[in-house]
Structures are given as C-alpha cells and as structure tokens.
Design goal:
This protein has 505 residues and is an alpha/beta fold. Helices cover 30% and strands 26% of the residues. Strands 12, 13, 14, 15, 16, 17, 18, 19, 20 and 21 form a 10-stranded mixed beta sheet that branches. Strands 3-2-4-5-1-6-7-8-9 form a 9-stranded mixed beta sheet, sandwiched between helices. A hairpin with an 8-residue loop joins β7 and β8. The longest helix has 20 residues. The relative contact order is 0.11.
Length: 505
C-alpha cells in the first residue's frame, strides 16, 4: 500500500480494573485490563495473599462479586489474616478445594492414577464454583499445588490454558498466585506478570520491591518499585521519574534572613534550586539550614523538614535558644517536621514522602538533614546517587527551594564525604574550621552557584545566643580552608560567646 494511502487507526480508550493499591495502579497506568488472567509471583512472605485480598476487597467496594479459591490456606486462616489488617471478608466467597474430606485416607482410590483424578476434579470444582457464583474477580491460590497434581509439565500447561479460556468466557479478571519465579512457560500464558521480592539486610527492616515483568497492551512503569507490607495492606511507592513532573514557576531569589549570607550567595536562595551545606560536624550546617527555613516561614511559605540525625524535641529546643523558634510554625501547620528512621525507610518511601509534602501539603521549602545517616543505612543500594538525582530534579522542576545537609569526616586539614552530591546541587555552601587567636573558629564560603553571581570570598561564621552572625571578608588570612591559616593583617574577628549548650551540626 502506498504511504499516502495509509490511515492511522485511533487507539481506543483503555478501561482498567483497580487493584485496590493506588501505587500499583499508578505503575500499571491505571490498573489491570479487565477479563484477563494475571500471574502474581513471589516467595512465601512477600505479600501475594495480601495483594490479592486488596484486589478482591476493591471489587466489593465497587459492587463486584469476588471468589477466593484456596488450595494452600484454610478459610479460617484467610479470615484471620484479613482481620489482622482490619478487614472483613464479607462479600467475598472463600472456597477451599482441599477440606477435611479430601484429606481423609479412606477417600483415596487406587484403580486410576491419583494425579489424573485429582487434577481433573480440582479444575472441574473450580469451574462449577465460578458457574454458580458468577464472580467478576477471582483469585487462585496457589499454582504450586496445581503443579504438583499435574506431575507433568505438558498436562500442567494444558490445564492452565483451559482455565484461562474458561475464565475469559466467564468475563472474569483473575489473579493466579505462584511461589515459583522461574516458570517461563507460565509467563507466556499469562496476560501480565507481577513479581514481588523480599530482600534481607544485615541490620534494619527487610526491603520489599515489586516489578511488572510483563503486561500486554500497557505501558507499565518499568524497573523495581519499593513497597511496604504493614497493617492495612501493601503500600507501593512508584519509582520517581522527574521528567514527568514539570511545572511553571517564577525563579525568584529569596533572602536567607541574614544580609551577609545573602551577599555570599549572590542575593539569597533561588526558587527551584538545591543548595548543599557541606562541612564537618559541629560547624553550623543545621543552624544555617534552620535560619534559611525560618526566613521562608516568615514569608508565609509552607515547609517540610526531614530530620534524620537528631530528635524533633532537640532541634526545636536548640533553635529556640538561638532565637529561631520553630514551634509556632509547627503548631499552625505551616512547618511539617518529620523524624526519619534511616534503618526503616527505603529510597522509594522517602521519595513518596517528599512528593506528598510538595503535592498534597503545598511545601515550597524542603530541608533534608542529613544524608549521612541515610547513606550509612543503605550500603547495599548501588543506585542511591541516581535516586537522589531524580529526587532533586523533581524538586527543582516543582519550583521548590531545597536545602541538603551533608556532614564530612575530619575537623582540621583534609576532610572527606561519604557520598559526592556536589554535581547534583545548584549551590554549595562550604563550612570549615580554622585556628585564630588561640581559638577554633568557623569559615564560610560559597564555592558553587549555577544561578547567581556569588561572592568568591571567605567569611567567618559565629553561632551565639542571638543566632547566626556572618563577619567580614577574611582578606588578611591565607590558607583558611586548610585549617591552618597565616594571619597577615588586622581584620576584626567576630566577638561574643559561642553557644555550646547542645550539638550544632
């Protein structure tokens, strides 16, 4: 056919069946295609049964009939498991294929091969139950028992094909659960394959993730997606793709609340950028982040503070002592101060919490303090830098002002970081200790800014009872950033008592 005679065929609008798990529906571009057979794979304990119950309960909410066919668990066990999540199975038919009669030795026969009879009877009983109930959603748990009954790969495949055609003729959407994650032949039969995985770690909670291995006719979000299994069921955190979240905003420059710090930064912090506060422990990174945060709150912005290293009460009390009281903003809801346990949270869950803060709570200023504990809790996460890249790119595209705290090892002389985020950040504020007049002091400088013509100078930073103070340019010092400067002039140093009543990072 000539090219000019070709006609494009419009793609019909896709209808989808919700799985009852919003994050999984997001990955599946809305949900499952109805009236198809799907395979849910995973080793025991990964959450297959919980996922299937959420699938059936979503159907009950929509007025659809549901059938749970079980060969591996009793109806009482299923109801007890559902009750542990606060669910009732009212409206869902639970059918046990193996009951007390099936386990009775007297019911066995010896004329025919047991597998021939038992497999045929099992499939026939399933079909009879579906004919009687006429359900819209069916869960078959599990294929492991059916595979054992078949005892032959060819007979097993034929029975699965027969069930698939039968369910399609009855307009059922079916989830088949399986413990075997290496059955390629079964993958070819199913319309879609969802794989659940559980990974143990040396310390902290296990990591769970889900992957859509196959989904015909659907552009599912590829890759692994973190999820948690807790009271209330599965919560899936779709992998963040920053390119999908662009927004229009005006990249205005806002003050940090300190005129001298604004001069260093070339005017202040720019909306839609990320600034990395980097330096050794105790140099004032968190206090500087709080000062910038307070300036945003005073402008009427909403903010979120993700706190990894210290307790909420400690941060609030210490900030109040420095004249930066955050408690009124926490009380009125404009500041969401979240304590994060790095051993219990995955990268996907952190990204999801940040998205919720921005999209649902309206936060335009985000502080992550600090990344050190998060990195230490995830030594086996090979792609943490890529995940942070997506997260920071997402925040930038949403017009959020982001401040990240990263502690460095060492005090005087050579210092180093656990992770290099310098290329990801739009600006870098560097903190360094140096010796002068018989005391240890802190130097502050901006070594990078993609958006402002910043100062290339080094100034002194002091933390006192009145808050932060930024001094004059240290023009008469040489080698300040090495920690061992040579003094050759009369630059006045900041005076006043340094606050040491609590940890300052």
């Amino acid at each position: 056919m000539p090219d000019d005679d070709k006609r494009s065929v419009p793609t019909p609008a896709r209808t989808a069946v919700s799985t009852g798990i919003p994050g999984l529906d997001d990955i599946l571009a809305g949900g499952l295609t109805p009236q198809r057979l799907y395979l849910v794979e995973g080793t025991p304990g990964t959450g297959k049964t919980t996922l299937s119950l959420q699938f059936l309960l979503e159907g009950v909410e929509r007025g659809e009939k549901g059938l749970y066919v079980t060969l591996s668990e009793s109806a009482d066990e299923l109801r007890a498991g559902a009750a542990s999540h606060g669910w009732s199975l009212d409206g869902i038919e639970v059918y046990e294929l193996v009951n007390e009669l099936g386990l009775d030795p007297d019911s066995e026969q010896s004329i025919l091969h047991p597998s021939d009879v038992e497999l045929g009877e099992t499939v026939r009983e399933v079909m009879e139950r579906v004919d009687a109930l006429e359900p819209s959603r069916v869960v078959f748990d599990s294929l492991s028992e059916l595979r054992l009954l078949a005892q032959n790969p060819l007979r097993y495949r034929r029975q699965i094909l027969a069930l698939k055609q039968y369910f399609a003729s009855r307009r059922c959407t079916v989830l088949m659960l399986d413990d075997n994650t290496a059955d390629v032949q079964l993958h070819s039969i199913a319309h879609g394959v969802i794989v659940l995985e559980q990974m143990e770690r040396q310390f902290g909670a296990e990591r769970r993730r889900v992957r859509v291995l196959k989904m015909r006719g659907v552009k599912a979000r590829g890759g692994f997606h973190d999820f948690i299994l807790d009271t209330g069921g599965l919560t899936v955190f779709p992998r963040l793709v920053a390119a999908e979240h662009g927004a229009d905003f005006n990249p205005v420059t806002n003050t940090t609340g300190l005129a001298e710090l604004d001069l260093l930064l070339g005017g202040g912090l720019v909306k839609g950028t990320s600034t990395l506060l980097m330096g050794p422990s105790g140099s004032g990174k968190t206090t500087t982040a709080v000062r910038c945060l307070l300036a945003a709150l005073e402008r009427g912005s909403r903010a979120s503070y993700f706190l990894f290293d210290e307790g909420k009460a400690t941060l609030l009390a210490r900030s109040a002592l420095l004249g930066m009281d955050l408690r009124p903003y926490v009380a009125n809801g404009s500041l969401d101060l979240m304590q994060i346990d790095p051993a219990e949270i995955s990268p996907g869950e952190l990204s999801s919490r940040v998205r919720e803060a921005v999209e649902q709570n309206g936060s335009t200023f985000v502080v992550i303090d600090s990344l050190n504990a998060y990195v230490h809790a995830m030594p086996d996460e090979q792609y943490l830098i890529l995940q942070m890249h997506e997260l920071l790119s997402y925040l930038d595209q949403k017009g959020v002002t982001t401040v990240i705290v990263l502690g460095q090892h060492g005090v005087i002389g050579e210092v180093r970081s656990d992770v290099d985020l310098s290329y990801l950040s739009d600006g870098i504020l560097l903190f360094r200790y140096f010796e002068a007049q018989g005391s240890v002091r802190t130097a502050l400088s901006v070594v990078k800014s993609r958006v402002n013509a910043h100062e290339r100078t080094i100034r002194e930073l002091r933390i006192s009872a009145t808050g932060l103070q930024v001094g004059e340019v240290l023009t008469d010092f040489q080698g300040v950033l090495t920690g061992l400067p040579a003094y050759g002039g009369k630059v006045a140093m900041l005076e006043g008592e340094t606050v040491t009543s609590g940890p300052v990072t």
